[in-house]
Specification:
Length: about 220
């Protein structure tokens, strides 16, 4: 069955083989379950309004206004999400332990030059930032889908970290926050944001001092 370019869980997700992405995901206990519930509900309502406006052939200006409102709210939610991640330090697992950091990096590099190109990686204590570009086709000539890649790297890293930490059960939150890279300027901003995340969080004074940050040339 061919996958859709758009699917939806609690957050909107867009997929397109050959597309560049900025993706963030976190440990399952990094943020209180209902902390962003209000944002999530408002985004769902706006998304429904946009879909209705499109299917009802509403004026282009009205659809553009709804999309603008949606994007502004999504940015506010992302800011709140990041602030909560930086404040929370009581997660059961610390990803910044060298062996855990390396496990995540190995997972994100596994499909390098086979299904994707990496731009930058940052493994924080309770979440991960990843900027990369999918190839259009994999080694078997099949389309490369974002959710397949994320499922692969999250399952592998969760299994290996649980083994390392001698624990069992859920490690990652079931969803990821993915943003489609629009252009070169957006790509540059995503890379800068990712590599400077440990500085923003007050963990180091320069991004190169953080073990979990890798910039790919």
């Amino acid at each position: 069955m061919e996958k859709k370019e758009f699917h939806r869980a609690n957050l909107p997700h867009y997929q397109q083989p050959g597309q560049a992405y900025f993706v963030t995901w976190n440990l399952y206990d990094a943020i209180p379950a209902k902390a962003l519930q209000d944002y999530t509900q408002k985004l769902k309502l706006l998304r429904s309004n946009i879909d209705f406006a499109i299917h009802s052939n509403r004026p282009h200006e009205q659809i553009s206004e709804l999309r603008f409102e949606y994007n502004i709210l999504r940015k506010k939610m992302m800011k709140a999400f990041e602030d909560l991640l930086h404040l929370e330090n009581k997660s059961v697992i610390n990803l910044s332990k060298p062996h855990n950091t390396q496990i995540v990096i190995n997972a994100l590099r596994y499909w390098e030059d086979k299904r994707l190109y990496n731009y930058t990686i940052c493994v924080m204590p309770n979440h991960v930032h990843w900027v990369f570009k999918l190839l259009k086709e994999n080694e078997n000539g099949k389309p490369v889908w974002l959710d397949d890649v994320l499922k692969s790297v999250k399952q592998y890293s969760a299994t290996q970290i649980n083994k390392q930490e001698k624990r069992a059960g859920m490690l990652w939150h079931k969803e990821s926050w993915d943003t489609t890279i629009r252009d070169d300027r957006h790509l540059y901003e995503a890379i800068e944001y990712t590599r400077n995340n440990p500085v923003t969080a007050g963990l180091v004074t320069h991004w190169s001092d953080w073990l979990g940050t890798i910039i790919f040339e």
